[in-house]
Design a protein that fits this description.
alpha/beta, eight-stranded mixed beta sheet, D-Maltodextrin-Binding Protein, domain 2, 9 helices, disordered N terminus, 255 residues, two-stranded antiparallel sheet, 2 domains
Length: 255
């Protein structure tokens, strides 16, 4: 009887797990080149990795695209919510449950070449009139934590690229890789802009709301690790490096 009862319970777990996994709300933002909308389709290496994980764990939940600030608030407040690609910081460590990393990025300050702006310290950047940031993004929070009061927030980084070209901001807090891609999507000449200051190097990951069941998070973590072990994630990264001139993973040597 005990064995029979155990088999019934195991069968129920097998049936319930995929359904429970589909109760997740999976969110992302328009963040080239990792996850972004192109011709109405959500694309990018982080999207491919997340979908590969979903196939492993039996989830068919759709990935929804929201402005970053709204998606971040949802991930903080709502149950069973997943947000990617999310910058991992010590301040955020206790706010979410984490899987990854999906990629490594360099946060930078960008200027128009013909302005002649030179930044050698953060204090230099504090003296310009306006710096474009993404609302509630970690770059904005990083600068605020260092005493910056000259920040102008937007809901989409393409707006910052356009504002920089129009002279409506003096600097733009963005990242590499991704600068060339977002300039192209915004209709901005990449050759007209340049990196003028390196802020930091940091990982981006998949963040789960704190209320998400540990078993679900662990299943995603194990799926991510399995995809790393069998070469799927490296294959996705190499494929996107070949697709995009603005390679999302510049640290990977060409095959």
């Amino acid at each position: 009887m005990k064995n029979a009862r155990g088999l019934v319970l195991l069968s129920l777990c097998i049936l319930v797990s995929p359904v429970y996994a589909d109760e997740l709300t999976i969110l992302t933002e328009n963040l080239p080149p990792l996850n972004y909308v192109q011709e109405g389709q959500l694309v990018g290496p982080s999207v491919d990795i997340v979908r590969a994980i979903q196939r492993r764990v039996g989830s068919t939940a759709p990935i929804q695209v929201y402005p970053w600030a709204r998606a971040y608030r949802m991930a903080l407040a709502e149950e069973n919510t997943v947000l990617f690609s999310t910058t991992y910081t010590r301040d955020r460590h206790e706010l979410f449950k984490w899987v990854g990393p999906l990629a490594t990025k360099r946060d930078i300050l960008v200027a128009l070449k013909d302005t002649g702006i030179k930044i050698t310290t953060l204090k230099d950047a504090q003296r310009v009139r306006r710096i474009g940031t993404l609302r509630d993004d970690t770059r904005e929070r990083f600068l605020q934590a260092h005493g910056f009061t000259n920040l102008e927030s937007v809901s989409d980084e393409q707006k910052n690229a356009q504002k920089l070209m129009l002279g409506r901001i003096d600097l733009w807090a963005y990242k590499k890789p991704g600068l060339k891609t977002v300039c192209a999507l915004a209709g901005v000449d990449f050759e007209a802009v340049e990196e003028v200051y390196h802020l930091r190097t940091i990982d981006v990951m998949i963040a789960f709301s704190k209320s998400t069941d540990d078993a679900i998070v662990q299943a995603w973590r194990e799926a991510f690790e399995a995809l790393q072990a069998d070469g799927t994630i490296m294959s996705i990264r190499r494929d996107w490096n070949r697709k995009l001139e603005d390679a999302p993973f510049p640290e990977i040597a060409p095959p």
